Amino acid sequence: MRQRSKGSAQSKPSSRTETSNSEDTVVLVAKRSKYVILALFVLVAYGTWSVYQHQFLNLPKPLGAEEVGKRGFSEHEAIKHVKALTQLGPHPVGSDALDHALQYVLQATETIKEKAHWEVDVELDLFHAKSGANLMVGGLFKGKTLVYSDLNHVVLRISPKYASEAAENAILVSSHIDTVFSAEGAGDCSSCVAVMLELARGVSQWAHGFKSAVIFLFNTGEEEGLNGAHSFITQHPWSDTVTMAIDLEAMGVGGKSGIFQAGPQPWAIENFALAAKYPSGQIVAQDVFKSGAIKSATDFQVYQEIAGLSGLDFAYADNTAVYHTKNDKLKLLKPGSLQHLGENMLAFLLKVATSAHLPKGKATDSRGKSGQDTAIYFDILGAYMVVFRQRFARMLYNSVILQSILIWTTSLFMGGYSAMVSLALSSLSLILMWICAIGFSLLVAFVLPLVSSSPIPFVSSPWLVVGLFGAPAVLGAFTGQHVGYLILVKYLTKTFSRRNVNLPFVVQDDLAKLDAERWLFKAGLMQWLVLLIMGNFYKIGSSYLALVWLASPAFAYGLLEATLSPARLPKPLKTVTLLIGLSVPFLLSSGIIIHLVATLIGSAVRLERNPGSNPEWLGNVIIAVLIAAIACLTLVYLLSYIHISGAKVPLITVTCFLFGISLTMVRLGVVPPFTEDTARAVNVVHVVDMRGANDKKQEPVSRISLFSTTPGNLIKEVEQIGEGFVCGTDEPLDFVTFSVKYGCWSDKNANIGWHELDIPLIHVENDTKGDNRVTHVSIDTKVSTRWTLGINTDEIEDFQLKGGPEELVPIGDKSNADGWHIIQFSGGKKAPRKFSLMLFWANNHTRKSQKKDSNTEQPLLKLRTDVDRITSPTETVLKKLPQWCSLFGKSTSPLTLAFLSSLSIDF
Predict the structure, then answer these.
(1) Which residue, among 859, 800, 802, has the nearest Cα to 833 in the 3D structure?
(2) What stretch of H or E contains 259?
(3) Which label site among 261, 324, 383, 678 has the fewest CB atoms less than 10 Å from its CB?
(4) HSE on the CB side for 2, CA within 13 Å?
């Protein structure tokens, strides 16, 4: 039999012809050069990093006032505002520093008003919100009521002087002045306030041509539960004129401020894409944020849910590990960060404020649902933004899905039984690839806490995950796929031996290898097709990535490789097929993947919402599974090229070396898990515990509590601090909004720094029993204007809260979480401290609050009051706290002094 030679040297399987008498026999040697594979891996690594650099690290040059003139945006001017605000130190609600910050912003806006264009009307309002209650139930707010009092905001409205109708059609630009108690807030969010001030200065020179007003809201109370935005939307007279909301936020320090929430109307994001000079935004970030993977919320949620507005939500996300810690400081703010956001925002505002087509009316209904055709958006290298609507996306996805199914059906029909079995076996290779990739990575995740002083040793050096998890994931993916490949080759060899009996066995074997390689490549197409179908069904915005990872390789394969005829013998896959097929997918996803992984790694410092409630390896497991999934999704095509190459041994050697060197560096402590600039999140709280007193004389129990939201024990920290700390799980501590199941405590000098007059009081004024039992309770928080109250909803059906004569929380439906409704209160210095609580008991109530696994009965009420005071024993601990540690602030955490009280059911 005469058979045409297949393949060529090196990049393709080579061929060799042997002649015997009058019969020519062709022997195929299925072999691809290892140097080609090496070059492909180098190209992927270099290209991936280059895309990330261009997309996320390439910042514009900061400009001075002289370069931009009156109408441009200057980072040099904006950075002056950041410096002034950060020099005040932390400025949480109720602090003197926040009063100074408000005064600074007020003076800056007055200067803008004085220097505005003569045809522009600038109105300035120092708005005082006396009190209010935020009853949102979405996301983090289920089972909570956020009550506030005595908040002050600076509100600036800029509109054309001779077009009064513009003031009734306003665009809101919002951010917050306040910080958490532990951070000076260079990123979160002095940088946002600075950008807004510089934007307002520029807009005040342009607004004479506007058709809409622009309102700049500098609010306070955001860090305590989005209270500033809520008070503006529900109480300020200008709020009724707002038709679009733009929120500026930060969950890190600097870098590119990208859009991570848009909509629900697509008009804003569509116009941003047209106007922005350096567009940055990914719907992938929106999908991740809305999934709840990142436990956070922004003022944008208030604008969407309460006001029914549409718009854009921006955030700085570089160096997320410093979020809400002492390291949120000016020196880490990258040059060009403010220029990037400022120029984008100025161009966007000039476009939309001069438009006659600004959407009006509510974007969502009373339930927060939207009937809009939402937008899918992503930027390309930070230079171009692609936006298309969900309706078009569904049409496109459905078309690709139907065509893919048609091609697969036709191919399987023509290939017959053999093709179906080959598809099943290639799908098995995918399953094995996922199992081995995740398995290898998980093994490392469980080993790391045993060999490292920290279970997450890669936080300060994120590149370590390449060796710790990336190398095992790639090795596992290849191993699993190779096992599937060997099974597939064995089956295909039998198929070719039956179909081509005249071919020599060695030829049949090599043909089987070539066909197996092609089936593995096509299995990658099947993988992405399944993901596209699922994403399309659930309307996931980031499904466009599945489309490009399916369509681009499929196009290259169809153009250069495909044949529907089973009679033709398989050809070697061309290297150019891989290059053409993967260029677009890597261009669109490389930067996003690196940025997402870096963000999640940084978030690991605050992984433990209830310290000690999760195993130490959980953070590692999350990162390990993510890295393994990325390897399986993005390398499935490339790995299919290796099995007939000489690169198998080099691949195993390189991955093992990377893993070994990374693990050795971690084991020897060459790379510390935390540094002074990337600190571990810890909290030091002086706790005064009066739970169970119930108006009876009881000596308070006082201690210094040390706990961490970062996984891992605190032994190393306690050894450096001293002060008699004992660590463990023996004394769990209930802080109402969260529980510390693992922590450290010390009673050394804990009886000083506070007074019994500071202890809050819970007193039952009246109790009317019967079928409709009602209990009147008075609460005196004494020196605290920030407190948290838990109400047992297994016993209490409804309640009413008053602060003096004013009703703060009315009677009505209340959500609950785990049997509790939580009231979080925060306010300024004039906020009330005495409250009246009316409790309406559930009819025929039973003791549901009796724990099934405990003999301890849950109380009826539990109260924590916070005081921003550093007592002398706390100060001693803070001075001895290692430099790699930082206090971590959030709305649900106590300040440095906390009082605990409760009221039992049988009071």
Answers:
(1) 802
(2) strand 257-263
(3) 383
(4) 3
